[in-house]
Every structure is written in C-alpha cells, then in structure tokens.
Amino acid sequence: MVLLLIAMNKKACILGATGLVGSELLSLLLHDDYYAHVNIIVRRKIAIPSKKVAVFVTDFANLEKVVEAFHGDDVFCCLGTTMKKAGSKDAFKQVDYEYVLKAAAIAHKQGAQQFLVISAVGANPRACTFYNRIKGSMEKDVSSIPMTAIHIFRPSLLLGKRQEKRLLEDIAQLFAKPMRFLLKGTFAKYAPVDARTVAEAMINAAKLNTKGVHIHEAL
Questions:
Q1: Whole-angstrom distance, CA of residue 13 vs CA of residue 11
Q2: How far apart are CA 23 and CA 10, in angstroms?
Q3: Is the distance from CB of 206 to CB of 116 less than 8 angstroms?
Q4: What parts of the chain have a pLDDT lower than 50?
Q5: Rounded to the nearest 5°, which phi and psi values hold at 166?
Q6: How far is CA 140 from the centre of its chain?
Q7: Can you tell me the distance from the alpha carbon of 38 to that of 49, in angstroms, rounded to the nearest whole number?
Q8: What is the pTM of this model?
Q9: Do the beta carbons of residue 53 and residue 40 sit within 8 Å?
Q10: Whole-angstrom Cα distance, residue 3 to residue 16?
Q11: Nearest C-alpha neighbor of 15 from the set 34, 32, 38
Q12: Could you give the C-alpha distances from 127 to 10, 39, 116, 203, in angstroms and in order?
C-alpha cells in the first residue's frame, strides 16, 4: 500500500503541451491517478480546468525563468517544429536542439529523475539530411546528461489533428492505413503513428522506472 501511494504521488512536467503529441499527453495525464500533479510550460496563457495542472508561461529561450516547473519526477519534452515553420536552419536547430537540451539540463539540475523526449525516425548525428542530423545530435547530447533514465521516442509520420495546417501531412494521412499495412517487420518503424499512441508509449515507459538510456521505435 505504501509503495502504491508513493507511485500515485508522482509529479510530471510537459513542454509543448499544446502540440499534437503534447496535447494528447496532457489529456491522458489529467485522467491518470499515477500522477498527482502536472506542470505545463507554454508560450501563451491557456486555461486548463483542473486543479491538478499548473501553467507556466515563458518563451522557451528563457526556460531558466520557470525552473520551478521542472520540480518533480518525470519531464516530458514534446517540443518540435518544421523547417518551413521555423523559417531557417538556425531557427529549426534552436527549437529542436537548443531548447530540448536546455530543458534536459534544467530538469537534471532541478532533481527530475526521468526525461522523455520525442525525436524522429532516422535520427543520426551523421545523417545526410539536416533534419535527421539535428535530431541525432539532440539525442546524443541529451543522452550524455546523467539522469536516472532518458527515453527517446522516434515516431515516423505523426497522425492527428494539428492546430496549424501542414499540407503534405494532410495528404499523407489519407494513405496512412495502407502504409501501416504495408510497412511491417524491419520497416515497421517507418509506419505512420497516431499522436495518442506516442503519448501512451511515453507514459508507459515512464511508469516502468527503468534506468539508463532507452530508444523507442516502431511505436
């Protein structure tokens, strides 16, 4: 009973709680008794009708202004953008590498035990494409931070309803089901995946309380 009560008193932090995966993650954690409290870090004030959630507003370049949001057990990082939305390689790197690395460093300094982050299939610091090189460099440098556990998730095309329109993703979602059927075995990691499925995988991994660095593919 004592162990159960301890487990159900966990505190979580979400970065990117208004994004595709982050919003699903927040929805799941709101109804999960394993977590007693959830801090979310967002760029603009949003209303969450729950006493379980505390909202911290800041630009992600200034995460050090909301270090108290990182107090707790598990930090879920769902930050990410696209080259088109970022506008330049430097801006993309700032979001998908610099902000994520800063978040992991602050989480460690504030005593968080686990850092769970979304990367991408094909991430590799020596990849041919800039996108995958940045994701791979992020994974490499985040993994060097001595936290109890680091979980890296590498989804392929994310399915779900975004706040902003992404034409290519909208087209791809039309072919999602046949792609899932065709991409099996060693190619399963390239199959499209629902954002909610990724969020569920992140929560399930956190609850395992395993140590070390773990990479999750074919979600």
A1: 7
A2: 19
A3: yes
A4: 1-5
A5: -130, 100
A6: 16
A7: 13
A8: 0.88
A9: yes
A10: 30
A11: 38
A12: 37, 34, 22, 29
Q: Please tell me the distance from the alpha carbon of residue 129 to that of residue 122, in angstroms, as a whole number.
A: 10
Q: What is the pLDDT of residues 192-219, one digit of tens each?
A: 889 999 999 999 999 999 999 999 997 7
The neighbour count for residue 119, using CB atoms within 10 Å, is: 24
Which residues does the annotation mark as catalytic? 131, 135
- Return the structure tokens found at 120: 């991408």
Q: What are phi and psi of 72, to 5 degrees?
A: 150, -155
Retrieve residue 17's tokens.
């709680």
d(CA 3, CA 178): 44
d(CA 124, CA 100) in angstroms, rounded, equals 16
Superfamily designation of domain 2-216: NAD(P)-binding Rossmann-like Domain (3.40.50.720)
Locus of tokens 């990182």? 70
Q: CB 47: neighbour CB atoms within 10 A?
A: 7
